[in-house]
Amino acid sequence: MHRRNNIRPIEILIVEDNPGDVDLAREAFANGKFNNEIQVAADGEEAMRFLKKEGEYVDATRPDLILLDLNLPRKDGREVLAEIKQNDDLKMIPVVILTTSQAEEDILRSYNLHANCYVTKPLDVKQFFKVVKSIKEFWMSIVVLPSNGD
């Protein structure tokens, strides 16, 4: 099913503890022709509660796409990625790693854990905005996303 042709908005979960990065990502996703909803989890434990619909997230909509930082409090992004990709109900959700880490070990480990892509965050605000817009254009214009099952 082509998600972009669906009337339902594309659901995006941003797992990021930096409020400035969250704001920039929201702005980048807001500009354009795509109808999307953005939810935010500020740490790995909150992200997993959201994805598993636990506690205050019992009515959460399953995301069509996850943007995941690796360096998170409470449960880091590597653990979150591993948990997502080992869970039969969640493993089909595309996960884009969006992090400051350029370490080869992080890149290799992320792909070994079945990340769908790995993007290094630029430190420059304008470049970061461009990167997020590029992610949006690729995942919402070109890629066919699976139905989220909700």
Distance between the termini: 14 Å
Label the CATH architecture: 3-Layer(aba) Sandwich
Number of helices: 5
Helix % is 25-40%
Unreliable segments of 5+ consecutive residues: 1-6
Q: What class, by secondary structure content?
A: alpha/beta
What is the succession of H and E elements? EHEHEHEHEH
Mean of residue pLDDT?
Answer: 87
Instruction: Specify the biggest β-sheet.
Output: 5 strands, parallel
Strand content: 15-25%
Description:
By secondary structure, this protein is an alpha/beta fold. The protein has a single domain (8-140), classed as Rossmann fold, CATH 3.40.50.2300. 38% of the residues lie in helices and 17% in strands. It has five helices and five strands, in the order E-H-E-H-E-H-E-H-E-H. It has helices at residues 19-30, 44-51, 77-86, 104-112, 125-142, and strands at residues 10-15, 36-41, 65-68, 95-99, 117-120. It has a five-stranded parallel β-sheet, sandwiched between helices. Helix 1 (19-30) links the parallel strand 1 and strand 2. The protein is globular. The model is unreliable at 1-6 (pLDDT under 50).
